[in-house]
Predict the 3D structure of the following.
Amino acid sequence: ILVVIVKFEGLRVVDTQTMATVMMSASRKGIALATASRRISLSSSILSESVCFKQEQQQQQTLTIREFGSSKDKKEEATLSYDERKAAAKEKRRQLHQTKVNRLNSLKTRRSNSPKDVQKTKFHSYFDTLRRRDEYLDRKARRCGKPWKVLVSAVVERLPVVTPDVPQWEEEYWEMKSMLMENSGKEFPMELANAGLSATSSMAGDTNAVYDRDDLLEQLKKQGFTPAPRETEADHTGQIQTLDRQLKTRVYLAIVPSSTSSSTNTQQWSFPTVQVNDDETLLSAAKRSITSSIGTKLEFWTPSNCPLGVQLTPYEEEEEDSEYFGTKTFFIKVQLDDEGTIEENENVVQDWGWLTREEMTEKVAVEQGEENSKFYHYLL
């Protein structure tokens, strides 16, 4: 096979017909053409260019065939029945979805092996079941033709008094940051560091500037201040009938109603609860539950009219003769405005105390079961 490569005016020709045309024009202009045996040597790059040219031609032909085939498929699709077209479209969607799933599974992420949405999954496993149960009980009450006995519980909350304890990881972070600043941090002039002091003390080089919490605490001790303890005596003795306990977290007012004043006929740890009258709202009933249980000397305010949640409790079989199907309890949050005092009345309240969420859920788990304990855990 004789391969001739002709270069004419910067143009490389690899096509046979174009090559012949260029050779004829070159001979008319007096350009001597060398034969392949004496002047031309084949190279791998030139051969690859010719191969690429042929592949492009084949791809164009294949594209034309595919376009023709797609139009043919459209004609065939028009002849299919409705069920066949629907089945074909469904199969196509399934293949596209499977391709997408395979691609996502093939992607490697940094947290591919770590558990994800653990707390969210745990909450939905409880809440979705509870919602289906409440919907079932509501339908059953309508079939029986009995109304619910509407109750309101006031969740009296005292906000944290002091800042919470710093976790271990945060302490290690600040220690590491302090070490890095000492070794490689920027050094500021003394005048800038003591900007909060007077001008005379700054110029004199006074070193009483406060840099962190420990320095501030040391200076306050020198001035005669004594910091109050973060854990009080009530925390050590276990006294719960005082607000001077658990200062680092929220506490809630819980009571044990007496047998004569209980709206639910149970003597268990719960929030102040009353039955809603026909002429009052949930918020006014919540306020009435507080004043009727612990007196009027406790100052509080309500951040919202919307209840925190609702709990449905059907009556047992021995109580089916009642005019109500069960109790529907709404929980209204009430925040403590001032400490005040609680008026102890044995005829209304048998026991009371300021409990944390953990303490409340523990008492409910012992008296009412694990499911009700989970309800109070997510409620608070």
